[in-house]
Amino acid sequence: MVIPARLGAFRVLWLFAVFEAVCLLDTGMLFPRESSSREVKELNGRWDFRADKSPNRNQGFDKAWYKIRLAETGPVIDMPVPASYNDITQDPTLRDFIGWVWYEREVVVPSRWIADEGTRVVLRVGSAHYYSVVWVNGVKVTEHNGGHLPFEAEIGSLIRKDPTQPCRITIAVNNTLTLDTLPPGNIQHMDDRTKYPDGFFVQNIYFDFFNYAGIHRSVLLYTTPKVYVDDITVVTDFLDNTGLVYYKVSVQGAATATLNVTLMDKNARCVASSSGPSGVLKVVDVNLWWPYLMHENPAYLYSMEVRLMATDGRSTYEDVYTLPVGIRTVNVTSTQFLINNKPFYFHGVNKHEDSDIRGKGFDWPLIVKDFNLLKWLGANSFRTSHYPYAEEILQMCDRHGIVVIDECPGVGIKDIRSFGNSSLTHHLAVMDELVSRDKNHASVVMWSVANEPAAEMPPADFYFKTLIKHTKALDPTRPVTFITDSNYARDRGAPYVDVICVNSYFSWYHDPGHLEVIPIQLKSQFENWYGKYQKPIIQSEYGADAVAGLHSDPPVMFSEEYQKAVLQSYHNVLDQKRKQYVIGELIWNFADFMTVQGITRVVGNKKGIFTRERQPKAAAFILKERYWRLANETGRLPFWTKYPCSF
Ligand code: BDP
């Protein structure tokens, strides 16, 4: 896998071949950024909202609610965007609602956008859970299957039809999960009228987080010229002191265009330039992108400015898009994970997009707080368990040097029917969207195609072989993994991954209360997996629930002391095995998070080392001490031999 380390001229040829592969996807999903040629208008704030509580949840479509103002179809309530709708009101039926909900907002579009026929106006939804249909002034403009990923539609011609009309945006979102969605789920109708009321049904899910729904990320209008930069792909490398940025730009709207590409350093000095739709930028005395705590100058980002000029005989178009670029390489051997050819040890966390009131809704204060906590903790990495996180979060990772294992929403694939063709086709499409969105982030070092699937089932072999091969073809520059539990009988798919990621909960789900089993069971886990596959291993989850403030000595389950003891016991084994082939450890979980109601969860999963309000439990201090010690051992900074206290 991944870039062969030192192959001289072959390496360059190989990189060009790779590069074509990364560009396989036909349309781009560039993050909307303002520039001299592009404007962005956020449509966040208060929207009108109506849940379709009709028995078949289809009244909105039957009565065409999109054709008129939502408030004219029936009672609407205020709903913030972005946010999950579940925890916003006092209505218990909305908290657990399954089916279609309707959002609507009228927008004033700047008149110059409408007047200028050479301007494209794009409506973009950062993410909505899970199936969305979008109308503008009653006309359907797009639909999208799946949460966590953006989708968009060009609406310029539509709003130009009648510039006197306000631009009314209607978005219907359905959170129903089926055997073919990602994540999968299924609806169960309860027909026994001696037990259940008329029309009673439940949504079964096989994952452990609350099925928050709604419009979770920003809704935007943005403009580009009619001829525009549709996509950019960069692949980076270096030879000695020279950084190499292979780039490819795709243009839409014209058959020919002039492209100038300039790479600027942090001081806005041009360090390399090129022209044409593809090429290589050579950076003398390169500042590589290094992870946090691995280098004294981590997370160095260049700015790549792409400037397009085109003419269609009548008009001239100029488009400018600037992409942050970190120059780094990733390689995997049978025992190591290399960033810039140096061994990298993941000491990090698993997270969730989750907090009170807003649920999975995007929230800058929460994000910045979480990054401050990660840096305080000495964490150098996280996994986007169990779905793609907001693009702004990955941008923060690029800026701060936090390394990311980027996971798709393939969580809870437990039913054999979810290994069929339609599930696979959707899963492949989701990987396309994910790679297309995140391929240019220096912080993203590995793709994870699934979490704890029932990989012991025979169809899992074909399913994961196809999925992993497809992902590698999309992006041969990054390793691919899927996350398994410790049972190595569930290993269909494992032969195709580059890194084995194992979750285990010894003394919790297995042998609850018996801390003494951890050393032997964890050691066997590592030896079994390594013995079978000779691939590097990440302990991708481990942990224990702790109710903040609950104390017990001797430690008992759910106390802060027990959580601490589990961590310490794991760390002893990890310290032996990280000298061999264990390349990382990610605690489950960064913070407490909400789950479905059930007998094993007391208002959510309490395996956080921080509470849901982001306050530390005792385990956070254990981990902080450890992570800084690991950084001192594995980072390369003489002045970090002292314990840090500056955060
Ligand atoms: C793991 C799952 C994770 C759960 C965790 C737990 O990957 O989603 O939240 O168990 O039960 O197996 O706490």
TrEMBL record:
Cellular location(s): Lysosome
Chain ranges of the Glycoside hydrolase family 2 immunoglobulin-like beta-sandwich domain: 227-328
One term under GO cellular component: lysosome
Mechanisms controlling activity: Inhibited by L-aspartic acid.
EC number: 3.2.1.31
Segments forming domain Glycosyl hydrolases family 2 sugar binding: 41-225
Catalysis: reaction(s): a beta-D-glucuronoside + H2O = D-glucuronate + an alcohol
GO molecular function: beta-glucuronidase activity; carbohydrate binding
GO biological process: carbohydrate metabolic process; glucuronoside catabolic process
Domain spans labelled Glycoside hydrolase family 2 catalytic: 330-631
Assembly and interaction partners: Homotetramer.
Family from the record: Belongs to the glycosyl hydrolase 2 family.
Record PANTHER family: BETA-GLUCURONIDASE
UniProt name for this protein: Beta-glucuronidase
Lineage: Eukaryota, Metazoa, Chordata, Craniata, Vertebrata
